[in-house]
């Protein structure tokens, strides 16, 4: 009788069961909104790279000397540089170089690293030991030093800088893909596939690879943002595209001598780089969360 009275006292006056707190719904909406914002930023930047003429009518290479070093305005959204070139136009047209470099860097790391990881994880034995020791050597070298070494061998330019950045990510892709292949290879359905007479190649393509690529794709999204930042860093240091190419890192480098009087020359291109990197990182996190929820 006493327990029944206590249970009745805890219920609301109308006898309805207590509802779930509203903040939980807001927490669910929050990540979804940030993912949509990240996707919107990336779609916009991709549109800049594909169709820059839709967003600006200014020539990114030709300027008007009389308009030099003008601040942001309705005519020049990001202001102008010391030669009178429209900075927003240069940022928009520069998206093609930076995004292409990021894609090349991720492709180099993804293809080479995944191939090494799949071979090491699926074959094992001495092959696994040799390949993983090579990966350990790559991991022991600082990324910037390795990038500069590759650029010295290949020469300057956006493509060579992208390849150099991609080489630095090979080890990360190799270790992740190897661990996923080893995990999937030990699962029951893979053992059943081998037990039913499946060949090594067919089992690898049908069962192992499809079930081990999701974390690799999440890493690819993360490395895309990291690659853009690294390529911009190399461009800032003078190892990327030569002037007057409107590459993002080079734009920031060209404006640093006017930072005290013309803040927009470095700040606004830098904000664009930061937004793209953060958006790629958020998209990578969303892919990882979706994989965790499915598992």
UniProtKB/TrEMBL annotation:
CDD domains: TM_PBP2. One of its GO terms (biological process) is transmembrane transport. It comes from the Bacteria. It is found in: Cell membrane. PANTHER family: OLIGOPEPTIDE TRANSPORT SYSTEM PERMEASE PROTEIN APPC, PEPTIDE ABC TRANSPORTER PERMEASE PROTEIN. One of its GO terms (cellular component) is plasma membrane. It is a multi-pass membrane protein. The lineage of its organism: Bacteria, Bacillati, Actinomycetota, Actinomycetes, Micrococcales. Residues 95-284 form the ABC transmembrane type-1 domain. InterPro entries: BP-dependent_transpt_permease, MetI-like, MetI-like_sf. The chain crosses the membrane at residues 33-51, 103-127, 134-155, 161-177, 216-241, 261-281. It holds the Pfam family BPD_transp_1. This is Dipeptide transport system permease protein DppC. Belongs to the binding-protein-dependent transport system permease family. Its main location: membrane. Keywords: Cell membrane, Membrane, Transmembrane, Transmembrane helix, Transport.
């Amino acid at each position: 009788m006493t327990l029944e009275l206590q249970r009745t006292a805890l219920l609301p006056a109308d006898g309805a069961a207590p509802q779930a707190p509203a903040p939980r719904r807001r927490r669910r909406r929050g990540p979804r909104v940030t993912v949509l914002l990240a996707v919107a930023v990336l779609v916009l930047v991709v549109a800049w790279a594909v169709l820059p003429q839709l967003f600006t009518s200014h020539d990114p290479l030709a300027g008007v000397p009389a308009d030099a070093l003008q601040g942001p305005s309705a005519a020049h959204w990001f202001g102008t540089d010391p030669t009178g070139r429209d900075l927003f136009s240069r940022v928009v047209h520069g998206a093609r170089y930076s995004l292409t470099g990021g894609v090349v860097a991720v492709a180099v790391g993804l293809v080479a690293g995944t191939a090494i990881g799949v071979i090491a994880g699926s074959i094992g034995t001495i092959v696994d030991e040799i390949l993983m020791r090579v990966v350990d050597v790559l991991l022991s070298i600082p990324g910037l030093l390795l990038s500069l070494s590759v650029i010295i061998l290949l020469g300057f330019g956006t493509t060579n800088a992208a390849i150099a950045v991609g080489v630095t990510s090979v080890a990360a892709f190799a270790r992740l893909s190897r661990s996923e292949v080893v995990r999937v290879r030990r699962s029951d359905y893979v053992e059943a596939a081998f037990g039913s007479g499946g060949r090594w190649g067919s089992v690898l393509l049908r069962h192992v690879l499809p079930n081990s690529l999701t974390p690799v794709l999440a890493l690819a999204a993360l490395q895309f943002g990291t690659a853009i930042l690294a390529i911009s860093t190399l461009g800032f240091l003078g190892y990327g595209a030569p002037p007057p190419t409107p590459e993002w890192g080079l734009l920031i480098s060209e404006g640093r001598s006017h930072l005290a009087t013309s803040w927009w020359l470095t700040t606004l291109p830098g904000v664009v780089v930061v937004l793209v990197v953060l958006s790629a990182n958020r998209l990578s996190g969303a892919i990882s969360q979706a994989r965790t929820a499915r598992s």
